[in-house]
Amino acid sequence: LPAGGASLRLCSSRAAQEGINRPVIDRIIRVDHAGEYGANRIYAGQMAVLGRSSVGPIIQQMWNQEKDHLKKFNELMVAYRVRPTVLLPFWNIAGFVLGAGSALLGKKSAMACTVAVEESISEHYNNQIRTLIEEDPEKYKELLQVIKQFRDDEQEHHDIGLEHDAEATPAYSVLKTAIQLGCKAAIFLSERI
């Protein structure tokens, strides 16, 4: 089940998927799976460094939600027969390095990383919601429900980062901009490759 208790019942039969915009759905599920995979690796890196610190339980709580998100996108990939991005091995390493690297700079830097990533992902999910509504909100009702719930969770993580002094990080705007540029590149590549 996705966070928030939303259920998604999908049939992997071709009949259940008639009339969907296959390229749009493939792209959405592929990139969201990659994003949730990357988020899991970021939180794993942060926990490796800060797991025993005062922010460890907060990072763990956010990571647990990301694990639920990844589980749901794993299920959606099977249900919709979408192949993962070939970049998963790279996102595995890059995500962990980003998480651990930001955490090595301190708790505030780890939270700045969270703010930057989650803001990018919330914006990305909002764009997908608009796309699916323009396509056919009734046809994609269940997928929209999942994406909206996950967007809300990501926004909550963003706000948690701000509450834990992300903006007090030295060179916060530079760090945030660099991470968000990386997120945009990751989104662009994962949608296509």
Automatic annotation (TrEMBL):
GO MF term list: 3-demethoxyubiquinol 3-hydroxylase activity; metal ion binding
Keyword Iron found: yes
GO cellular component, one term: mitochondrial inner membrane
Gene Ontology biological process terms from the UniProt entry: determination of adult lifespan; regulation of gene expression; regulation of reactive oxygen species metabolic process; ubiquinone biosynthetic process
InterPro entries membership: Ferritin-like, Ferritin-like_SF, Ubq_synth_Coq7
Record's keyword annotation contains Metal-binding: yes
Lineage, broadest ranks: Eukaryota, Metazoa, Chordata, Craniata, Vertebrata
Keywords: Iron, Membrane, Metal-binding, Monooxygenase, Oxidoreductase, Ubiquinone biosynthesis
Protein name: COQ7 protein
Natural source organism: Picathartes gymnocephalus
Listed pathway(s): Cofactor biosynthesis; ubiquinone biosynthesis
